[in-house]
Amino acid sequence: MEKVPLALDVDTGVDDACALLLAARHPRLDLRAVTCVGGNAPLPDVVRNTATVLDVVGRDDVPLAAGSPRPLLEHPVDARHVHGADGMADLGMPSPRHPLDPRHAVDLLKDTIDAAAAQGTPLTLVPLAPMTNIALLARMHPGSFARIGRIVFMGGGAQVSNATAAAEFNVFHDPEAAALVLDAAVEHAVPVTMYGLDVFYEPTLTRADAAALIASGRPVAVFAGRLIEFLCQRFHAETATIGDAGAVASLCDPTALRTQRLPVRVELMGSWTRGRTIVDLRDWTGDLDHDPHGLAPAQVDVALGVDGPRLARLWLESVGGA
Ligand code: RIB
Ligand code: CA
Description:
Elements: E1 4-10, H1 14-25, E2 29-36, H2 43-56, E3 64-66, H3 80-83, H4 105-118, E4 124-127, H5 132-140, H6 142-146, E5 150-154, H7 169-173, H8 175-187, E6 192-195, H9 197-200, E7 204-206, H10 207-216, H11 219-234, E8 239-241, H12 244-252, E9 257-266, E10 277-279, H13 285-289, E11 299-306, H14 308-320
Parallel strand pairs: 1-2, 1-4, 2-3, 4-5, 5-6, 6-11
Antiparallel strand pairs: 7-8, 9-10, 9-11
The structure holds alpha-D-ribofuranose and calcium ion.
């Protein structure tokens, strides 16, 4: 089976760390680059956390670059109430050795996309954070953006929200960026999959799974188990979602995801709805014909269902193995 060349844009983040572990280890995936953006935690913490994960999985070969410390327009806020003071479960990990690439994240993404396209295997770009870096890429290097094979982003929700009653954190953090990325995807005919909150919470693991990972004594498994255990403790629960890692797992097992190609817009104006991904689920032509807004130009493969246990098991086996 041909490997999927991919790059992750992250705001590591406990679940971003789970995603990085899988992206770095699964035999179906060819991790080419990782870029960082402010989000769950301030950018310096995100860079440190991401470098730590790449150390844990021994991927010195994967370039890591820092990008935007803040959204295009919004002031930065973080989610350390979820991810811990250091942004990654406060595990007390040693300072990372992984070097920081001298390029800006946008330039690393450009070079990675162009190299993959030149090899005839267009890159899959996986934003798991506010899409500020991706929006900057679209405006600074439109030719490279057009060479992206597919964007699979964790963000938004058709009928589920978290940051506000209307919006999901990544899109709420930088709605302009999300809207710009969808606009550029239409302009350059880049296919987009939205792994939103409608599926995000489905792939879960138990405290017992976490304990077994930790008991294995294998460094990657122990680290993975401690991440899951942290989330269970944080939410006083017996289970925790692998979050962002589900988007990466769906690349390994696409049949686990049920998607529907739907028009999607990002609300930029609403007092209470700013940052909402408006997924158009209507199916009657009459309504559409009389809609003054018209159909959203962006036709996105929206994940509406997932085999959660299957993706959770894929993650568990990949991070838990020798
Ligand atoms: O809403 C969930 C998203 O926000 C995830 O990417 C999580 O890491 C946070 O960034
Ligand atoms: Ca994230």
